Amino acid sequence: MSTHTHLILHLGLGSFHRAHQAVYLHALQASGDRRWALAGGNIRPDMPETIAALIAQHGAYTLETVSAAGQRSYTRITALQQVLPYTPDLAALIRLGADPATRILSFTVTEAGYYLDNRHQLDASQADIQADLAAARAGRAGSTLYGALSAILRARRAAAAGPITLLNCDNLQHNGSRARGGLLQFLELAGETELAEWVSRNTASPNAMVDRITPRPTPAVRERVLAATGVDDAAALMSEDFIQWVIEDDFIAGRPDWERVGVEMVASVQPYEEAKLRLLNATHSCIAWAGTLLGLHYIHEGTQHAAIRQLAYDYVSEDTIPVLDTPAQPSPLDLHAYRDKVLERFANPAIADTNQRVAMDGFAKIPGFIAPTLRERLARGESIACVAMLPALFLAFLQRWHAGVLSYRYQDQAMDPAAAQAICTAPDPVAAFAADTTLWGELAGDARLLAALRLASKRVQAFVAEQRA
């Protein structure tokens, strides 16, 4: 088929999207199925140089992939056929979103970019949400996911352009369900009841799980691409060669035949999602926080460090796999093999993924990736000694941040800096940490959590002292 008839509009043209979702559509188009095309842009003025480069290159860019054995390969990705320049009114995004040819509206944001509280409800107290609610009431676009989606869907409804699927492509647990809940709450708060009713009837929000390690591109990537291909690509990027995408097959207006290029279309993404969030994402954070405490710079350095690797291995093996794979609910995945593959991927020195990138957003990652294992083990009356090491590492990391001795700038969209400083200056920082509701929700202040964190914090202190001796 020579020309596309349907469009996917993607919000957030960061490195991950271009190394993941766009790659799958590129592969499908390369197979001869060109019914679907991809367009995209950003909802904030992020990455202006990259966006300008993509526009100049008509959406094409080079992806370098690196295997665990260090083998590099290069692919010119051409699925991104329209790159929309950023404007504060999001006019170009709204125009395409209201086009009947657009059947999927996808997006990639960080966990904190959903502005959900520990009950997974929209946190309307956030200044960004307040500003976007005011914009929505005035019929304008905003700068958060909800402010952008509401403007696009408002225009689509007005144009009678038909149903559309909202597709998350990021790490938030139960991302489709939670983003949908946040959007509908946003619309109700904005007084857009009729639009909320239209969204309920005319959109679907499948949950999805994504996986591919994609570090921020460095100038060295561009240099290697030029040397290998002869193309000086200002939008070049790199990733590992591993890639995975699992999506619930719940689309309201059609979808590409992604299963032809390796996407797993399933009835429920939950077991895949839980494995990825707890065995990969939490382990990633564990290695980043521990590595930072020991003065390491890269993820592969921490993964290859015997003591850090053991912390991660024990967390997965002793505390996490037993709650994800039970006789009553066996996992469809071989979790021990998954654990080993994760550690192999993290140990790849060619990825050169930094602790700074992976360590960010701890106040979103602890409730999302780590607290569920704590809760489930406590509910079963089981030890939380191994999983408690991860938040204890983060507390030690946070204390370094407070003291101003981190080797890099820490970014955390979900963190209230005043509250974090208060934890670090409290007479009993471990107790203050254990009582924080942003991190722990209903588990905050639990005596069993506090006891485990006290022991884990002593182990972290001993670990750092021993490794630095």
List the helices and strands and how they pair.
Layout lengths: L5 E6 L3 H5 L1 H10 L5 E6 L6 H9 L4 E6 L5 E6 L2 E5 L6 H7 L4 E6 L19 H11 L7 H14 L5 E5 L6 H15 L3 H10 E2 L3 E4 L7 H11 L7 E4 L3 E5 L15 E3 L3 H24 L5 H5 L2 H19 L10 H12 L8 H5 L2 H18 L9 H15 L13 H9 L3 H6 L2 H4 L6 H22 L1
Helix pairs in contact: 4-6, 5-6, 6-7, 7-8, 10-12, 10-13, 10-15, 10-16, 12-13, 16-20
Question: What does this protein structure show overall?
Answer:
This protein is α/β, with parallel strands linked by helices and 469 residues long. The chain has helices spanning 15-19, 21-30, 48-56, 91-97, 127-137, 145-158, 175-189, 193-202, 219-229, 270-293, 299-303, 306-324, 335-346, 355-359, 362-379, 389-403, 417-425, 429-434, 437-440, 447-468; strands at 6-11, 36-41, 61-66, 72-77, 80-84, 102-107, 164-168, 203-204, 208-211, 237-240, 244-248, 264-266. It has a six-stranded parallel beta sheet, with helices on both faces. A three-stranded mixed beta sheet has the order 4-3-10, sandwiched between helices. Strand 3 (61-66) and strand 4 form a beta hairpin. Helix 12 (306-324) runs antiparallel to helix 13 and helix 16 packs across helix 20 (447-468). It is globular, with a radius of gyration of 22 Å. The N and C termini lie far apart (65 Å). The model has no long low-confidence stretch (mean pLDDT 96).
